[in-house]
Amino acid sequence: MRRALKAHDREEPTEILRRVGEIWGTPSLQDLINLGDSTPGPDFAALAPAMNDLAEAGDAVALGVLRQAATDLVEFVLLVRAKLRAKHGIAGEIPVAWTGGVVEKMRLVREPFFAGLKAAAPEMAVGSEPVVSLEGALWRAKRLADAAG
User: At what angle do helices 60-88 and 48-56 cross, to 10 degrees?
Assistant: First the structure.
């Protein structure tokens, strides 16, 4: 929303505010802002499919949002990797698995996410298909149980 409001203030073309207004049922920009600032606020994550549609249709502001999402995901993976290495004394590369959602459904996030990881950590194995979250939790529980004896 911040990027869309900045674009609006700069009179840059974007359909984000109109589309969010439709989704949230806000008849004016002021109503949209008031709802966005309310407590509890609206479910901003629920706007992701609309942002994707707008970006795929060529909305430059929406495309910027998705590119930033990919960059943020890459940075988060690299941060977790650094913390795991430091905490557990891991010298080698740490493989990455991912599960559904944005990476699976949004090409404009998925492609720069994979490219960003490859550029930052060429040796990192990154799964090409999503995994089931529950399988990761079960794998971790088994490892902890095995370690406990």
Answer: 120
Instruction: Provide the whole-model pTM.
Output: 0.85
Nearest-Å Rg of the Cα atoms of the chain is 19
CB of 135 closer than 8 Å to CB of 94? no
Whether 70 and 109 have beta carbons less than 8 Å apart is answered as yes
DSSP 69-123: HHHHHHHHHHHHHHHHHHHHT--S---B---SHHHHH-HHHHHHHHHHHHHH-TT
Chain centroid to CA 58: how far?
19
User: What is the tens place of the pLDDT at every residue in 124-138?
Assistant: 999 989 988 887 778
Neighbours of 120 (CB within 10 A): 13
Which tens digit of pLDDT belongs to each residue from 18-55? 999 999 999 999 999 999 999 999 999 999 999 999 99
Sequence spans of domains, the chain: 2-148
* Best CATH choice for the domain 2-148 from the list 3.30.2220, 3.50.4, 3.30.420, 2.30.30: 3.30.420
